[in-house]
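F.,

This is the one I mentioned.
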């Protein structure tokens, strides 16, 4: 698990380095901010439909082989981009094609790597392992973003893509040496042989997700939070530079506090043992109320005092949600459930920022933060009241290898 966490830190740093450089590269080629957003959307769009099949592939194929091959393919794409940049042959069309191919491979790589990490620890430690993964992600984001500027300044844009390619190959080289921990939750495809295709259909994952009230509730909480909150890079940037009359330096300070809160939240999330949808909802509602108060901040100092707990609550909530998502389904279905989640998440990731931008146009930065926070808290509160008024219907799952102990009869109250 230590080797896996270190490899993922290296890979996350390389990925964030490439994403930062890619935005600068698109601006350099086109001079258009809209084109920059389009390149990110093209990379994310394949997850809308292909994630369903990517999740099925993760359940069907040997997990270590799947993760190693997907990491190697992502590395090859990064190296190909580096060569095109070095030869000055990269245009907008080829960049979009490479971004789309990256998005397709990521629909398999994401769930494969997430579930492979869970195989490395005992069942009881899976929520903690997911928290460690969140910490690694936050740290990699900070380091990769910082290294992007240094790499481009000293070695050029192509070097950033080459470094990301090397980071993927490092992960691929570590995977063959990983061994599951004693008592680990090994999925159906974690071993050395593939499952028959007729036993691993996409429909089975969709049906399970649609009939699982706690997963639907988790999707509702996460979706409303993603659309009306969470996009602090957009809302707080407008608030700081507009009503609070701050500059780029002031927003940089806010961004630093957000990052620090994310790391602190990941540390706290790694200590969770029994995360639940109820906890995710409570944290999301608390963060929404903090967002309302932040929207009313009279000064930058007050905003900074609120930003840290906002980021901590968001990070812990995200970690708890991922833990529920990756441990609630039976082991044989987890890849397909993550695939369904990837498709749903793409909808709000693509639609959330434009909807929030429209809300800011109509109500301003303060109005968007206040209204968005009230919508999130109100929706979660209403869902809690509606759940309490109906009789919980137990959902019984067959006990299989890899299932969490004591989870055979979870009700909607869970």
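My design for it:
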């Amino acid at each position: 698990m230590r080797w896996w966490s270190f490899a993922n830190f290296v890979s996350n740093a390389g990925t964030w380095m490439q994403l930062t450089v890619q935005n600068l590269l698109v601006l350099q080629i086109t001079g258009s901010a809209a084109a920059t957003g389009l390149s990110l959307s093209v990379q994310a769009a394949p997850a809308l439909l292909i994630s369903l099949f990517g999740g099925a592939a993760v359940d069907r194929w040997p997990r270590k082989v799947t993760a190693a091959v997907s990491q190697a393919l992502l590395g090859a794409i990064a190296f190909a981009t580096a060569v095109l940049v070095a030869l000055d042959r990269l245009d907008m069309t080829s960049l979009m094609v490479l971004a789309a191919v990256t998005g397709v491979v990521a629909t398999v790589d994401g769930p494969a790597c997430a579930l492979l990490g869970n195989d490395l620890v005992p069942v009881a430690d899976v929520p903690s392992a997911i928290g460690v993964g969140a910490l690694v992600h936050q740290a990699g984001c900070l380091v990769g973003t910082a290294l992007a500027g240094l790499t481009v300044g000293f070695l050029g844009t192509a070097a950033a893509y080459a470094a990301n390619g090397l980071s993927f190959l490092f992960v691929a080289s570590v995977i063959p040496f990983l061994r599951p921990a004693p008592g680990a939750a090994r999925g159906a495809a974690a071993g050395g042989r593939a499952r028959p295709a007729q036993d691993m259909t996409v429909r089975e994952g969709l049906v399970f997700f649609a009939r699982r009230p706690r997963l639907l509730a988790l999707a509702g909480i996460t979706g409303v939070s993603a659309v009306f909150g969470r996009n602090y890079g957009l809302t707080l940037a407008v608030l700081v530079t507009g009503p609070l009359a701050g500059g780029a330096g002031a927003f940089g300070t806010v961004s630093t506090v957000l990052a620090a809160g994310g790391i602190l939240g990941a540390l706290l999330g790694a200590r969770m043992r029994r995360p639940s949808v109820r906890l995710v909802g409570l944290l999301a509602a608390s963060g929404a109320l903090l967002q309302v108060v932040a929207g009313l901040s009279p000064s930058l100092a007050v905003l900074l005092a609120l930003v840290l707990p906002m980021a901590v609550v968001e990070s812990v909530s995200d970690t708890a949600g991922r833990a529920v998502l990756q441990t609630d389904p039976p082991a044989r279905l987890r890849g397909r459930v993550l695939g369904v989640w990837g498709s749903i998440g793409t909808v709000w990731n693509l639609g959330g920022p434009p909807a929030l931008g429209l809300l800011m146009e109509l109500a301003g930065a303060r109005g968007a933060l206040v209204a968005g926070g009230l919508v999130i808290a109100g929706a979660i509160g209403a869902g809690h009241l509606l759940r309490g008024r109906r009789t919980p219907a137990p959902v019984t799952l067959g006990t299989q290898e890899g299932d969490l102990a004591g989870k055979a009869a979870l009700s909607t109250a869970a």
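Residues 293 and 370 are 7 Å apart (CA to CA).

Talk soon.
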